[in-house]
UniProtKB/TrEMBL annotation:
Keyword tags: Membrane, Transmembrane, Transmembrane helix
Annotated source species: Maribacter litopenaei
Protein name (database record): DUF3307 domain-containing protein
Spans traversing the lipid bilayer: 35-52, 59-79, 91-111, 123-144, 164-190, 211-231
Pfam short name (any one): DUF3307
Keyword Zinc included in the entry's annotation: no
InterPro entries the UniProt entry points to: Phage_phiKZ_Orf197
Length: 234
């Protein structure tokens, strides 16, 4: 059953990302339910699902998935203008598609299968992953708050770029510790230092250099401690 679920997800990815030209997306956003590409898109999904199922008797599964895909996409076209952040409806759209596939695959024992997945979750790992994301970013913000007020930045940067960079680097560090590749952490620190070199060179500010160094060490330190706690916990 898991293999079939993977095949249907593959069909979804092929249909949504590889067999949907940008021209179709633009046309759908402009014409919404009146766009012929909306229905062609759903028809392509039906064909892909049938190929992956490879069983004419399961046509009803492909039909449910294709029709649900049509209505989910249609709903997204109408609610999309309501969101300032366009990534929100995109991810909600993808989540709903995957949820429908999951329900269609495990409808006979949906509750039991879902509970089994829930019970088998590695909760210490979930805790570690969650901690190194936003909670660690907030902790770092509080820790460095007094120092950040002394830093004068005369260059523009993307909103929250530093926060997201920190989250991604901590997730990498956590992953490297769990799989036992400590040397990769050294490579990550080196790569970050190289990317930061020009900024520090141009700013010629000792305070900024010290602030970035402290922030980097705290960020890596939180991830390393979290990784070690998880590894020793298990």
């Amino acid at each position: 059953m898991m293999q079939l679920f993977a095949k249907l997800v593959l069909a979804h990815l092929l249909g949504d990302f590889m067999l949907q030209p940008t021209k179709w997306v633009v046309h759908k956003e402009a014409n919404k339910a009146a766009s012929r590409y909306l229905y062609l898109h759903a028809l392509i999904h039906f064909g892909l699902y049938m190929i992956m199922l490879w069983d004419i008797q399961k046509w009803w599964i492909a039909s449910i998935l294709a029709i649900s895909h049509l209505f989910i996409d249609m709903a997204k076209l109408y609610v999309n203008p309501l969101f300032k952040n366009k990534s929100i409806p995109f991810f909600l759209d993808q989540l709903l598609h995957l949820l429908v596939i999951y329900v269609c695959m495990y409808y006979q024992n949906l509750y039991e299968h879902t509970m089994a997945l829930f019970i088998r979750l590695d909760w210490p790992l979930v805790l570690a992953i969650v901690f190194v994301t936003t909670p660690s970013a907030i902790i770092m913000g509080k820790f460095l708050e007094g120092m950040s007020n002394q830093i004068n930045t005369d260059h523009k940067s993307l909103p929250n770029a530093g926060k997201y960079i920190g989250i991604i680097e901590r997730l990498f560090v956590l992953t490297f510790i769990i799989i036992g590749r400590w040397e990769a952490i050294g490579l990550l620190i080196t790569a970050k230092s190289v990317f930061r070199f020009n900024d520090l060179k141009e700013s010629n500010s000792r305070k900024l250099t010290e602030y970035i160094l402290i922030g980097t060490l705290v960020s890596f330190g939180l991830a390393i401690v979290t990784g070690l706690l998880y590894v020793n916990w298990n």
